[in-house]
Amino acid sequence: MILRRNWPAALVCLAVCLAPAPVLAQLSDNLGGLTDANVAGYLGPLNTGLSGTMNSAIFRTGNVPTVGFNFSIGLVAMAIGYDDEDKTYLPADPPGFTSLVPTKVPTVVGDPTGVIVEGQSSLAQLYPGGFNLDGFEIAVPELSIGSFFGTRVLIRYIGLDLGDSEFGEFKYIGYGAQHSISQWLPLLPIDVAAGFFMQGFEIGDDVVKASATHLNVTASKQFTILQPYVGLGYDSIELDAKYVDEEHPDLSFDLTLDKETNMHLTAGVLAKLTPVNVFLELNSGAATGVALGLHFGM
Q: What residues does 80 pair with on adjacent strands?
């Protein structure tokens, strides 16, 4: 049987799930038999989950005041669902192994039971199971400050100490701005604004890093307390994973997953219940998902 520990993949999955210690231990035990060529297949749903959530619920109105001071702070939550095709991939045979029959195996969100693929010369290749995830959800705090000549600034941030874990700290930060287009087109019957948002997270000392960018145009219209809105955007996300084993250099790992890009459609409604505003939206980008949240301010 051909087996090989792959700690870098475990670290990447930690970034996805922010898993508690028992889950991490299980993940470490499950991982094995992945060559560099198969890590991307196993972790493929990672980019989908992160892009589908991180790039949602950023811009929820086309109305950006051109004068005065406005400020809000709140919490937003995003979720996407995984399809059946996200739960398996077709691995490439590692060096020294030739499978008898091409067999799909679990991704990180697939069946928790590993798969043994029979090969020539009585060899067998073990591929790890996943965590049987039907979806991926995250929630982040958010701060918005404006208005500077029709422009508002948005910031999201999380910093977590992973305790006794060897991975150290988890950091997430997002920042960007939205600018009023309507102020230059006063005859428009709706409010329109354009925005950009950049995000990144990392675990430990550059062990796992991801960066995402979202470009967007949002249009909205106020009706009493309700403000429906629609958005058209463009998403990109890229993930890097790095692991250095000084005692076993052959296990060292440095991986950059292919950048994933998607068009992003948004439709939602914002209820202005001053000083509390709540919203609900649907998203179609790297994945189909839903987002909701609330914020306080003006």
A: 136, 289
CB-CB contact of 26 with 13 (8 Å): no
Residue 207's pLDDT is: 60
DSSP code of 29?
H
The string over 250-259, giving b where at least 16 C-beta atoms fall within 10 Å of a residue's C-beta and e elsewhere, is eeebebebee
pLDDT at residue 47, as a whole number: 75
Q: Are 192 and 182 in contact (CB under 8 A)?
A: yes
pLDDT at 241: 66
Q: Which amino acid appears at position 40 of this protein? A: A
pLDDT for res 275 = 85
Cα gap 183→99, rounded to integer Å? 63
Q: Which domains does the chain have, with CATH numbers?
A: 43-82+134-297 (2.40.160.20)
Distance from chain centroid for Cα 100: 36
Residues sharing a CB contact under 8 Å with residue 284, sequence separation 6 or more, in sequence order: 264, 265, 266
* Cα 146 to Cα 152: distance, rounded to the nearest angstrom: 4
- Quote the pTM value: 0.80
With a cut of 70, which residues of the chain have pLDDT below it?
Answer: 1-33, 36, 160-170, 203-208, 241-246, 248-253, 298
- Angle, helices 44-54 vs 7-17, to 10°: value is 20
Per-residue DSSP letter, 247? S
